[in-house]
Amino acid sequence: MNLKLQLQQQPTTSSLLSMTTFSTEFLSHTLNFRNHPNRTSRHSNPNSIVTSSTPLLNEGNINNNQRTPINQEQFRVNETRPKLVQNCDFRDTNSIKALDKSCKSGKYDESLYLLQRMVNRGFKPDVFLCTKLIKGLFNSKKIEKAIQVMEILEKHGEPDVFAYNAVLNGFCKADRVDAANKVLDKMKKRGFFPNVVAYNILIGNLCGKGKLDLALRVMDQLLKDNCRPDVVTYNNLIEATINEGGIDEAMKLLDEMLSRGLRPNASTYNVVVNGMCREGLLDRTFEYLDKMISDGRLPDISCYDSILASLCKNGHVGEALHIFKKLSEVGCPPDASSYNTLFGALWSSGNEIRALWMILEMLSKGIDPNEITYNSLISRLCKDGLVDQAIELLADMMESRKFQPTVISYNAVIRGLCKVQRVIDAIEVLAAMNQRGCLPNETTYTLLIRGIGIGGWRNDAMELANSLVNLDAISEDSFKRLNRTFPTIDAHKELAISE
Q1: Its pTM surpasses 0.90
Q2: Which of the 8 DSSP states describes residue 229?
Q3: Which H or E run contains 84?
């Protein structure tokens, strides 16, 4: 029996808002939040690592302003350096131990000082500890000091491909791709042929930035260097191709991957399923969510969550519920993401009671709600005018040990309170937000300014708006929109704020 039939066997059942002008007037009431009980290196060989005036790289004018979220899989280095005979003078054992200890404890500036002192005394730097120090400095955003360690290693020691990979990884995470490319060239000049991990670092970064053409050029270079691509290489390229060229082009890469004798892993299947679901190709997804099973790979919950989200997005809530009910039977019990998807779909379709039962079922099965669960429920309660219930949930988040409300959570409640003209309470929520270290954004301020203006204090609202635009807390465009809005708003009508 194929997967689709199997799943469908059963029928469906900046600082506190500068309120100096009028905070005294507004903060006379207190918003009572209910008190809820709390819910329940690898290179460690101690040896000497040991500035060179010769720069490692001539980086030129590198743009450091752009920042792109990076998939962690792109930079996971699953390689093991073989144990080497290490070069050190054991007469300086105390310095070696001090250096290793400072590196392990994350005192990287101290480690660099010890390294410089040791190399100045004639000791040869150890590649293992240098690599560890390079990684630590990059992770601490101390890029120039990481480069300095590599310079020391190049001048006084013997860098290897693992050390260069650490530098490549650090530059890519810092979005300095040009510098990373120069490291790759330098490796070749020094007689090191980059391995697949080095190429994956570059390919993954370029794919994450939407530069598929450049990533494919790196792939060509990988093949020219007689380096064999692996599953991670193709997973990065397949995902980027889905984003830029569509699922059909991505499937060609999958075929190429298979022709090289590489077997897809769970990440490959998830990427392809996500792409198919995004394009609404549900039948094709089921034919694929079946090939996986025939290949001996059962779909994981991430695959099913993608299918559920796609079904709900396209209005097939009933079919999504069919699949949801069968998940445990096929070995993939639903997670918080599954419940969040069905909750949102049911509430949006007008079945609020059934949606709330989904939350109760999730809790009864011991699945903890996450930030998305809370924010989704708070937003929908406020949208339907159930603001007090939303405030209770916000208070519940504030008491949680696992996660705290974000600006999204607070904005939803402020929007709901302003909508029912409870401006004083909205200001109290803003105060609580600031006290807990959650910074307001422009949306927060504009929501509250609108609420104050609609509540009858239009002059005060615009005075506040003027102060905030001078502080760059809201933009000139927002100020102009607010200035145009207030003269035309009927103060007795319900506040209409777009979601």
Answers
A1: no
A2: P
A3: none
